[in-house]
Amino acid sequence: MGGVQGKEGSPKKGWVPETKLESKMVEAMQRRASEGSTMKSFNSIILKFPKIDESLRKCKVIFEQFDADKNGAIDKEELKHCFEKLKISFTEEEINDLFEACDINDDMGMKFNEFVVLLCLVYLLKEDPTALHAKSRMGMPTLEATFETLVDAFVFLDKNKDGHVSKNEMIQAITETTTGERSSGRIAVKRFEEMDWDKNGMVNFKEFLFAFTRWVGIDDAEDDDEEGEATV
Ligand SMILES: [Ca+2]
Ligand SMILES: [Ca+2]
Ligand SMILES: [Ca+2]
Q1: pLDDT for 86-138, tens place per residue?
Q2: CA torsion sign, 59 to 62 to 64 to 67?
């Protein structure tokens, strides 16, 4: 707490990840990256959007199950119960780090989109090098397949496999598939800036996931009751 913020900007070499969790995330991503990506182009990622969207929305059921007091957010206690049920053995510190990493508006409760990001990070972190391609890491095979698609998409973008997507990598990914249109470079930069929340010039997997929940539109699902309760 209260550390010196120090030099911002230059995320060149020697850039130190903020938390242990962050460095584990990068390590897990680098290991996964060494296996390569099945994505062929940026468009092939976009084509998967509807399916990913559909699958992530189904997460809402899980979210509601874990939101024991039904206040629309998952607090730390609820999250711990949730992890126990899923047999996810994270340490207290890891749970705290995860919680803080995903609780972006800092109100001590996971909203739905934050919860989706958190589960996907758990999926990535639960990757066990000694048990590659085990059937299921979390007991949710369909959802895990979607998470794998998201990891795969990130690996596609991370050309140099360092666990981060740089602006140049984003530009490369988008411009190499669109046939030399002038505008595609600008789009790439815009997309990149949308993703790079902390403006450090690099997009990590967490930032990528949050951007994704916005792109597929699950972040504005907050108050629209599908039951259509007409409360006026
Ligand atoms: Ca709750
Ligand atoms: Ca990279
Ligand atoms: Ca960033």
Answers
A1: 888 888 998 999 998 898 776 779 999 999 999 999 999 987 655 555 567 78
A2: negative
Q: Is this model's pTM higher than 0.85 or not?
A: no
Torsion of CA 94, 98, 101, 105, to 10 degrees: -130
Neighbours of ion ligand 2 (CB under 5 A): 158, 160, 162, 164
pLDDT digits (tens, 9 = 90+) for 24-70: 999 999 999 999 999 999 889 989 999 999 999 988 999 999 999 99
Instruction: Give dist(CA 57, CA 224) in Å, integer.
Output: 13
Q: Distance from the CA of 17 to the center of ligand 3, in angstroms?
A: 11
User: Which amino acid would we find at residue 16?
Assistant: V
CA dist., res. 42 & res. 175, Å (int): 9
- The residues whose Cβ lies within 5 A of ligand 1, an ion, are 67, 69, 71
